[in-house]
């Protein structure tokens, strides 16, 4: 890996990482990329009955997809079981033994039907939730994703995706605030 943790085009990739998926993606207009970031967020919950505690497996990871359009927007999606005002980035848990780049390609296809052209890891967010002496941790790998041109259509009906929306910077702030205002049992989405 390079000093910043990213791979160059010449470096070998894992057996299930598609060729070119870790190639740099040009930033959407108006967005400056300042390199890979690692963020650790520690959350204490009062009891194991807290929805966040129940939502997290003892350990896990997901890929979050900032799929950008030519107009500088990022694709958000809504699922049938979400409250009507909630739109989120497409995302999905990594399967056992699956690499994050392979999950980016799989999740992009399952949730949008789009084919990944290139993806760039923007940040890894380490969430550590503790309750007394017990802890659970979960990593979110945020990728900026460029896809082949196309219209998003979900390929996995079990996901319950019912709408897509392009979002510019103000829309992303509104989506974040909507998540922060959720009430039980969904409030863990906004933490």
How does this model look, in words?
With 191 residues, the protein is an alpha/beta fold. The chain is 16% helix and 33% strand. The two termini are 31 Å apart. 21% of the residues are buried. The model is unreliable at 1-25 and 28-32 (pLDDT under 50).
Descriptors:
5-stranded mixed β-sheet, two-stranded antiparallel ribbon, disordered N terminus
Please render the helix and strand layout as text:
Layout: E1 37-44, H1 51-55, E2 59-67, E3 74-79, E4 91-93, H2 100-112, E5 116-131, E6 134-147, E7 161-167, H3 169-180
Parallel strand pairs: 1-5, 2-6
Antiparallel strand pairs: 2-4, 3-7, 5-6
Summed up, what is this model?
The chain has helices at residues 51-55, 100-112, 169-180, and strands spanning 37-44, 59-67, 74-79, 91-93, 116-131, 134-147, 161-167. The strands form two sheets. It has a five-stranded mixed beta sheet with strand order 1-5-6-2-4.
Give the radius of gyration: 17 Å
State the total count of DSSP E strands. 7
> Alpha-carbon distance between the termini?
31 Å
Helix percent band: 10-25%
Low-confidence stretches: 1-25, 28-32
Secondary-structure-derived class: alpha/beta
State the order of secondary-structure elements, H for helix, E for strand: EHEEEHEEEH
Shape: globular
Average pLDDT score: 77
The largest beta-sheet arranges its strands as: 1-5-6-2-4
Strand content: 25-35%
Q: Describe the biggest sheet?
A: 5 strands, mixed
């Amino acid at each position: 890996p390079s000093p910043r943790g990213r791979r160059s085009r010449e470096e070998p990739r894992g057996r299930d990482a598609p060729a070119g998926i870790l190639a740099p993606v040009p930033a959407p207009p108006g967005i400056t990329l300042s390199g890979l970031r690692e963020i650790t967020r520690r959350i204490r919950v009062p009891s194991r009955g807290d929805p966040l505690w129940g939502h997290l497996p003892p350990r896990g990871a997901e890929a979050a997809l900032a799929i950008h359009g030519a107009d500088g927007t990022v694709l958000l999606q809504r699922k049938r079981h979400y409250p009507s005002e909630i739109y989120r980035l497409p995302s999905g848990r990594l399967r056992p033994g699956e690499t994050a780049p392979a999950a980016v390609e799989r999740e992009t296809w399952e949730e949008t039907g789009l084919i990944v052209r290139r993806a760039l890891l923007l940040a890894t967010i380490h969430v550590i939730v503790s309750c007394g002496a017990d802890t659970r941790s979960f990593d979110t790998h945020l990728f900026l994703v460029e896809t082949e041109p196309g219209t998003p259509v979900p390929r996995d009906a079990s996901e319950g995706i019912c709408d897509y929306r392009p979002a510019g910077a103000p829309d992303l702030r509104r989506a974040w605030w909507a998540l922060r205002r959720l009430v039980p049992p969904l409030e863990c989405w906004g933490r």
